């Protein structure tokens, strides 16, 4: 018996503006929650969110402020490479994530979060959030912009590009986390990028 073929839509149906607004809110909220769980468990991750966590650990500066500053160069790259629409949406997502990250500790204090649990749940939440934002013409800034650019221009899967960038961030985290934490965090980053590679690839999603 032959495998069932995938039915292609007759035409691409664009997302309505209110769907994009909800996606920005939901994606940013999920990402901020995932990073909060990661941080509460003592884990780190890749991408500019991970870089923000590493620098926050190293300097004791608030994550929200570090994350916004780290993303400024990538916002400029987004303007040049992907246009104003994508860049503005990504900048809004970055701002929302930073804002949500300030709220979570006050409304949902977390204590005694397992390192392994934090790494798994946190990275899954961030991965799902990135997929939501990608599919609505946005990102969390940073390496997501670079990953989408490589996918669009070179045909490389966004998840694999992000994985390479994440490896660099995790290597930098050696300076602020113990070796065991680094190993668990690395496994969590692989899980995050598996979520991306599984759910966001060329030719699979036809929303716009």
Automatic annotation (TrEMBL):
Pfam families: YitT_membrane. This is Uncharacterized 5xTM membrane BCR, YitT family COG1284. Keywords: Cell membrane, Membrane, Transmembrane, Transmembrane helix. GO terms for cellular component: plasma membrane. It comes from the Bacteria. It comes from Flavimobilis marinus. It is found in: Cell membrane. The chain crosses the membrane at residues 21-38, 58-79, 115-134, 180-198. It is a multi-pass membrane protein. The keyword Lipid metabolism does not apply. The keyword Transmembrane helix applies. InterPro entries: UPF0750_membrane, YitT.
């Amino acid at each position: 018996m032959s495998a069932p073929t995938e039915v292609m839509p007759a035409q691409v149906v664009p997302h309505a503006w209110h769907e994009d607004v909800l996606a920005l809110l939901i994606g940013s909220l999920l990402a901020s929650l995932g990073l909060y769980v990661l941080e509460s468990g003592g884990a780190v991750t890749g991408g500019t969110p991970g870089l923000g966590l590493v620098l926050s650990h190293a300097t004791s500066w608030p994550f929200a402020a570090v994350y916004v500053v780290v993303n400024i160069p990538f916002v400029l790259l987004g303007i040049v490479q992907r246009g104003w629409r994508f860049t503005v949406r990504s900048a809004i997502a970055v701002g929302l994530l930073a804002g949500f990250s300030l709220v979570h500790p006050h409304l949902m204090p977390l204590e005694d979060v397992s390192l392994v649990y934090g790494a798994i749940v946190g990275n899954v939440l961030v991965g799902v959030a990135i997929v939501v934002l990608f599919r609505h013409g946005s990102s969390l800034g940073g390496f997501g912009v670079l990953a989408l650019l490589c996918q669009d221009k070179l045909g490389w899967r966004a998840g694999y590009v992000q994985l390479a960038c994440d490896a660099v961030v995790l290597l930098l985290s050696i300076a602020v986390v113990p070796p065991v934490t680094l190993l668990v965090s690395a496994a969590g980053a692989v899980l995050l990028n598996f979520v991306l590679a599984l759910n966001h690839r060329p030719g699979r999603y036809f929303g716009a």
